[in-house]
Design a protein that fits this description.
2 domains; five-stranded mixed β-barrel; 170 residues; OB fold (Dihydrolipoamide Acetyltransferase, E2P)
Length: 170
């Protein structure tokens, strides 16, 4: 026979375990739902184009080479627009192509390279120039224009180290 004190004690443990499980389930649910909401696809321009309408209106992150001839900036509306050419995402392909600077240069010379028009609202970045690598975060509109919320730029030639004179002369 169980005493009344034992049944009260086991009932308290059960309530504690159920409460703990509910808290753990709520934390897991919040982590999963916030991760899915913040998830972004990282695609090359070719990959983005191949997915068609599946990517319209979804958060995306895309990298490419900036076509300097296409850069337009309206200082009144803070609207920057430019065209980006596809650059491979595979580091092995970039190294085999002669490095990032060469791959960016070659992608802009290739008339067959996929391109996308980008529109960004904000101040014009100092590093926006021909052959810079742009990484844009935003959404592809049904009009085929990528509407960027974030714009990161990297100019590989700016960061290449010069050969010291003593090495050249020696």
């Amino acid at each position: 026979m169980t005493s009344p004190a034992m049944s009260v004690e086991s009932g308290g443990r059960t309530k504690f375990l159920i409460g703990g499980l509910l808290i753990v389930a709520a934390v897991v649910y919040l982590i999963v739902s916030s991760t899915q909401a913040a998830a972004q696809y990282y695609l090359t321009i070719d990959e983005m184009r191949s997915k068609g309408s599946q990517v319209y209106g979804r958060p995306l992150k895309v990298a490419g080479a900036v076509d300097g001839n296409s850069i337009a900036y309206d200082s009144k509306t803070l609207t920057l627009s430019f065209s980006m050419a596809n650059v491979p995402a595979d580091l092995g392909a970039i190294e085999a192509g002669g490095g990032l600077a060469k791959v960016l240069h070659d992608s802009l010379l290739d008339p067959q390279a996929s391109r996308v028009q980008v529109v960004y609202l904000g101040p014009k970045p100092d590093l926006i120039r021909h052959e810079a690598q742009a990484i844009v975060t935003g959404q592809l509109g049904q009009d085929g224009v990528f509407h960027a919320d974030e714009l990161l730029l990297k100019c590989p030639t700016r960061y290449e180290q010069e050969v010291p004179l003593q090495v050249v002369e020696g």
